[in-house]
Amino acid sequence: MKPLTVTVLRPTRRHTLPGFSLSLGLTLLWTGLIVVLPLTALLFRPWHNGAGTMIHALYDARMHAALRVSFTCALLAVLIDLPIGLLLAWTLVRYRPPGHRVVDAMIDLPFAIPTAVTGIALATLYGPNGWIGSISSQWGLKLAFSPAGIVIALTFIGLPFIVRSIEPVLRSFPKDVEEAAFLLGASGWQRFRLILLPTLAPALLSGVGLAFARGVGEYGSVIFIAGNQPFHSEVAPLLIVMRLQEFNYDGATSIALILLVIALLCLVAVSRLRRSVSSGLVREDGA
Amino acid sequence: MSITLKDFTQYAPRSSRKLLDDIALTVEDRSFVALVGPSGAGKTTLLRAIAGLSSHSEGTLLIDGIPIHDRPVQDRGIGFVFQNYALFRHMTVARNIAFGLDVLPRSRRPDPASIQHRVTELLDLIQLPHLAKAYPDQLSGGQRQRVALARALATGPRLLLLDEPFGALDPLVRRDIRRWLRDLHERMNLTTILVTHDHEEAMDVADTLVVMQEGRIVQAADSATLNATPATPFVMEFLGETLKFPGILKAGRFIPDNQDVAPFPFEGIDGRATVLIRPHKVALVALTGNASVERRPDSPNGLFRYRVLTNSGDFEVTSPTQLSSEELQNVHIQISRGKVFYEP
Predict the structure, then answer these.
(1) What domains sit in chain B, N to C, each tagged with a CATH number?
(2) Which of B116, B153, B147 has its CA nearest to residue B131?
(3) How high is the ipTM of this complex?
(4) Nearest residue of A to residue B83, measured between CA atoms
(5) Which domains, ranges and CATH numbers included, belong to chain A?
(6) pLDDT digit string, tens, across residues B178-190
(7) pLDDT at residue B94, as a whole number
(8) Less CB within 10 Å around the terminal CB: N or C of chain A?
(9) Residue-wise DSSP of A38-101
(10) Which of B165, B150, B160, B148 is nearest to B50 (CA)?
(11) Parallel, antiparallel, or unpaired: how do β-strands B191-196 and B159-163 relate?
(12) Residues B57-86, mean pLDDT to the nearest whole number
């Protein structure tokens, strides 16, 4: 009698991606070296000379003022960008006015132009002898070399973030959904507030988060128009540079640390807010 | 709710191309009408025009005798169900259904409790009471379809417009929801207009079929009339499988070009003509002609299928009874039960 042999087919686990371990390794290495390591270094560097020096550096009134200027101006700029960006995206997507392609390309200019160029251009335009600056100074309004100048620069820098983040959502917004709301009796304002705005909210929030983060960190375009008076129109990134020039590394890194922490907090807040306004818009399985 | 269209023409935006060409149509109160036709015939365009969603149009469109744009949207009493449902993704099913009531001006809006009550009532009606808190993305196609219907019904419309409402559903659900819709139509005394490209569906659910072709209405009648006296070859072809036999009318007889098909008497004006006939109305007479016949696999509805081979081409016919092998030889084809159409 022949011995009975039984072959058991063992299911082998296969990954869809070839070389999964290789790609995972590369990804981790990349994130680790380029993102996590510098940030970790920044977390540890301020305590280098002991907690005392660090705490001393944190109690610097000029730094507090600079941080306040950076965050208030960035916030104001985003609040100005929000309605303008919404309107701009809306016009580009819905009405396609003549020359909309040109406008569309121009929206990206703040991304493309070197920030120093932006800064000089804005300073020239809004300065006391500039086209706009000379007119506004007649009315007693000093735009350049004041916090107002910072807000102007940050508004310019932040606008494309808002427009570009909501534009695709607006473009893919189905026309029949709006028509359905119309036929159910919703007025124009109701359709905007109840249908369109909630659909745009997640994208709008991302745009706001990005523009705000960029605004807080903006250096090149701001320093030419800000006037850079300590306690008045000096932004935090500029103060970091000043501290470095003074070889005050503790001061510089402590500002950097605070900026980093606040940026992280903003990121968390935005993503939480995003999730709370995304109910129904993003499937739970992530699809 | 009655609808009257007269000399109604609609143009494509920014061009003189006509999407709807000189439409004349009357829809009686409480009737169930289906707009049928191939894609691009203008069915959806006509439906949207009736809903007041179109521009670039001229002519008369009266709803209960009043021009549609003379009445604010809330007072029109029109419920519209879109082909892709057009549900509000960021709202729960309950809020979707309540939308039409939520946006009413405060003076006319029911209090929240009555709105809630109405929503529960409608959820029961569409047999989805457990899904009030779900979001549209969590529903199946059939469920979304019903939610869209409930949303359209919430404000108590008297005219219900449906754009290919069953398009994305599987055949079983389709049949169910069709019956249910017909039921609803009766119970709520609605006037219903439905767009579909499926003539069987239209015949199953509607009283009147409006057949459209290239932006025009070709014929509007009930299904029996359409079957008995189709206005054009297109109507006949659209409503079911058709065989075509071109020929000539001469001295009171129709003489087909195909030699194997028997001429038959027909009184008419002499000239070119075509006979259109349903495959089951073709009669095969054995041992009198030269055509041969092959048995084909039976059709799913219990009919026997045969392939007729003639010198001028082959075609398929059906028969309720099985033909014996003697009956399949040297057959002669009779088409006198077909419809004769003059060629233009």
Answers:
(1) 3-238 (3.40.50.300), 243-342 (no CATH)
(2) B147
(3) 0.85
(4) A176
(5) 47-277 (1.10.3720.10)
(6) 888 999 999 999 9
(7) 95
(8) N
(9) HHHHHHHGGGTTHHHHHHHHHT-HHHHHHHHHHHHHHHHHHHHHHHHHHHHHHIIIII--TTHH
(10) B160
(11) parallel
(12) 88
A203, two tokens: 């994208």
**Helix A61-90, helix A236-245: angle, nearest 10:** 140
Distance CA B191, CA B172 (A): 25
Question: Taken in order B104, B110, B112, B115, is the CA torsion positive or negative?
Answer: negative
**Distance between CA A38 and CA B328 in Å, rounded?**
89
What is d(CA A28, CA A32) in angstroms, rounded to the nearest whole number? 6
Task: Tell me which DSSP letter residue B198 carries.
Answer: -
Picking from A176, A177, A185, the nearest residue to B73 by CB comes out as A185
Which among A158, A28, A141 is positioned nearest to A80, based on CA atoms?
A158
Q: Which pLDDT score is estimated for B300?
A: 77
Q: Please identify among residues 159-178 of chain A the ones whose CB lies closer than 8 Å to any CB of chain B.
A: 174, 176-177
The letter for the amino acid at B138 is Q
- Cα separation, A177 vs A218, in Å, equals 39
Yes or no, beta carbons of A279 and B135 under 8 Å apart:
yes
